[in-house]
Known about the structure:
By secondary structure, the chain is mainly alpha-helical. The chain has two domains: 2-100, Rossmann fold; 104-225, Orthogonal Bundle (Helicase, Ruva Protein, domain 3), CATH 1.10.8.60. It is built from eight helices and five strands; from the N terminus they run αβαβααααβββαα. It has helices at residues 2-26, 50-64, 87-92, 104-115, 124-133, 139-159, 212-221, 228-241, and strands at 30-34, 73-77, 162-169, 177-184, 193-194. The protein has a three-stranded antiparallel β-sheet with strand order 4-3-5, with no helix packed on it. β3 (162-169) and β4 form a beta hairpin. Residues 1-12 have low confidence and may be disordered.
Amino acid sequence: MLLFLVLKASILLHRLGKNLFTLAREHKPSIIFIDEIDSLCGSRSENESEATRHIKTEFLVQMQGVGNNNDGVLVLGATNIPWTLDSAIRRRFEKRIYIPLPEEHARSFMFKLHLGSTPSSLSDSDFVTLGKKTEGYSGADISVIVRDALMQPVRKVQSATHFKRVRGPSRTDPNAIVDDLLTPCSSGDRNAIEMSQMDVPGEKLLEPIVCMSDMQRSLTSTKPTVNNQDLDKLKKFTDDFGPEEWE
Length: 247
């Protein structure tokens, strides 16, 4: 039963691939973008199923087959492991563009972009500092750091043993300012009240905003996912296929 389901899924993908290109030609100019193309068009082997081979063959035919007019249709593929692509698939892509890890200024902007409109105390200099400290990190790595940092205020509330009263906008009426909101604090704060999150009414809780220390804490616990071996493989791939094919 499992084999039957896999086969039916493969047939469906085969038909979808053909229909995708047909649709793109009917509505050109069009762009077909295939992320993680290595999962679809990896190197062919004796162990792969016939259904998988059919999918790759259909993709090859549609990209550059006899009678297929792809003028006005741009096909883009993205992969972190280009050396695993089938050679016939690789030849179908006239340009192979290497996009390196983000540079320092780009990393700084990514932190600001992922943080978005979330309230924070980070300054422009803090974003510059984060960009400097994340050499070797990918855009996905930076996204993970920011998502973890956004959870730090929640963790502070959950683990707090003391709260203090502060002034801020009312949770029921943002236009009204009240003096009895409660926010986490250290036990040594002179206004500290010993209590837990369970003792704080929901409408009185004021969560801390994201700060630089939250980002630094998340950065410490998040390591880059791209190692030197991966970068060396990319360099070798570049050398093997000639720099003239890269921009």
